[in-house]
Specification:
Blueprint lengths: L11 H9 L5 H10 L6 H12 L3 H15 L15 H8 L8 H13 L1 H19 L2 H13 L3 H12 L1 H9 L5 H16 L1
Helix pairs in contact: 6-7, 7-8
Length: 197
C-alpha cells in the first residue's frame, strides 16, 4: 500500500515543487520523473495531476500544506530515514488493534496522533464502531452515530449519512450473533483461485 516507483505519489514532493515553479506540462513532468526512476505510465500521472489542474495555485499550496500536516506525517521512529505515511496506510491503521501491530505500525500511529489530533479522534470512532459490531447494543450504536456526527470529521459524517440509509440492516447486524463473513471469505478465496487459474 505504500507508494512505490511505479506510482506518481512516490514522486509527490518533486512534482509539487515543479508544479509550484510553474512547470505543468504533463509529458515534460513524465520525462523528468522517469529520469528519477518512475516506471508507470502517463495516464497514472495525468490522473494524479488532475485535481491540481482544477484548483488555483493558492488553493493547491494550502492543500499541500494541510496534507503534509494532517494526512501524511512521520513514519517509523525505528528507521533512521524519515518518510511519510501514505493515506492508504494511515486509513488501514485506523481499525487495527494495537495487539496486532508491529513496532513500526505503533510508531506510525503515535506519530499520526501527535501531528494530527483529528486522527486520534477518528481512530477512537473507528475502534468504537468495530466494538459495537462485535459486542454492542442498538442503543450504543445510536450513541456512536450521534458522536460521529458531532465529531466534525467530514469522512465520518459521510459514513454516518450512508449508514443511516441502511440503519435497519446495521441494527440487525448488531443484534444478531451470526454473520455471513465466513461465506464472503470463501467467495473471496474462490475468486482468488479463479484469477490464478
Amino acid at each position: 500500500m505504500e507508494p512505490n516507483p511505479r506510482t506518481p505519489a512516490f514522486y509527490r514532493d518533486y512534482l509539487e515543487k515543479r508544479w509550484a515553479e510553474g512547470f505543468r506540462h504533463g509529458k515534460t513532468l513524465l520525462k523528468e520523473i522517469q529520469e528519477l526512476g518512475y516506471t508507470g505510465c502517463f495516464s497514472y500521472l495525468a490522473r494524479f495531476l488532475a485535481p491540481w489542474r482544477r484548483k488555483p495555485a493558492a488553493s493547491l499550496a494550502l492543500d499541500t500544506a494541510m496534507l503534509a500536516a494532517d494526512a501524511a506525517p512521520f513514519v517509523s521512529t525505528t528507521n533512521s530515514s524519515c518518510g511519510q505515511v501514505s493515506p492508504q496506510v494511515a486509513a488501514a491503521l485506523l481499525g487495527k488493534l494495537q495487539s496486532q501491530m508491529t513496532v513500526e505500525q505503533e510508531a506510525s500511529v503515535d506519530a499520526l496522533k501527535k501531528s494530527c489530533p483529528g486522527y486520534a479522534a477518528m481512530r477512537g470512532l473507528v475502534m468504537g464502531f468495530r466494538t459495537i459490531l462485535r459486542t454492542g447494543k442498538i442503543e450504543t450504536l445510536h450513541n456512536w452515530v450521534d458522536k460521529a456526527t458531532d465529531s466534525g470529521i467530514y469522512g465520518m459524517q459521510r459514513f454516518v449519512h450512508t449508514l443511516k440509509q441502511h440503519l435497519s440492516a446495521v441494527e440487525e447486524a448488531v443484534e444478531e450473533t451470526w454473520s455471513n463473513g465466513p461465506v464472503e471469505g470463501n467467495i473471496g478465496r474462490l475468486k482468488a483461485i479463479k484469477r490464478q487459474i
